[in-house]
Amino acid sequence: MAVASILVGKPEWIGLLPGTKLLATNMFELNNDGRKVGNISGLLKSVSWLFQENVHIMNLSFAGAVHKVMRKVFVSFHNQKCFMVAAVWIWGGSDVPAFTAAYKGVTGVTRINDHGLAYATTNSGKFVIFATLGVRVFTAGSGGRGRLRIGASFAAAFNTAVMGLEISKGRAKQPLHLPQP
């Protein structure tokens, strides 16, 4: 809900791209212990559905280890001119690649604070393409109230909005392609 409020908002909460159609999917499920977990099957179903819906841009907010199948899926999406923005999560150390952000064709976004400084535990690997405000970000909260949040997911939402505007104006012809590790 918080990322959606940044992107499109709702009548009582104006987002960066009001009126834009937002599709959301959930790759998580409950395991035998009742905990929410993600797996490759759920991820494949989620991103495949978004691609089938002909989305122009995906905002991805999860991290994990590299996976051969997912690498091929994201390269395929990139080749089909689907823009992908991913939050760079803290994953095993500041320079350890955090996938999905580290896949070729995915724009990795990390967080900085309102003074332009990297957050203390920010990942800083070669796959980080942008650093955007992700500390003390005001988002929608429960009960119609806002709250301050911290996270790369919120930073990525700002980049997704900017890329969405570029796409809508016809200026973004090709997803960002920078060398990846």
Give a structural overview.
- Helices cover 27% and strands 24% of the residues.
- It is of the alpha/beta class and 181 residues long.
- It contains four helices and ten strands, in the order αββββαβαβββββα.
- It has one domain (2-168): 3-Layer(aba) Sandwich (Rossmann fold), CATH 3.40.50.200.
- The protein is globular.
Count of distinct strands: 10
Q: If you average the pLDDT, what whole number results?
A: 84
Strand content: 15-25%
The domain tally reads 1
CATH architecture verdict: 3-Layer(aba) Sandwich
What is the CATH class designation?
Alpha Beta
How are helices and strands ordered from N to C? HEEEEHEHEEEEEH
Please bin the fraction of helical residues. 25-40%
What kind of sheet is the major sheet? 4 strands, parallel
Give me the secondary-structure category: alpha/beta
How far apart the termini lie comes to 32 Å
Catalogue the unreliable spans.
Answer: 177-181
* CATH fourth-tier homologous superfamily: Peptidase S8/S53 domain
CATH topology: Rossmann fold
Total DSSP helices: 4
Shape: globular
Widest beta sheet: strand line-up: 5-6-7-8
Radius of gyration: 16 Å
Structural key phrases:
Rossmann fold, 27% helix, two-stranded antiparallel ribbon, globular, 4-stranded parallel beta sheet, disordered C terminus, alpha/beta, 181 residues, 4 helices
Task: Break the fold down into its secondary structure elements and pairings.
Layout: H1 2-7, E1 9-10, E2 13-14, E3 28-30, E4 36-38, H2 40-52, E5 57-60, H3 68-79, E6 83-87, E7 106-112, E8 128-133, E9 135-140, E10 146-150, H4 152-168
Parallel strand pairs: 5-6, 6-7, 7-8
Antiparallel strand pairs: 1-2, 3-4, 9-10
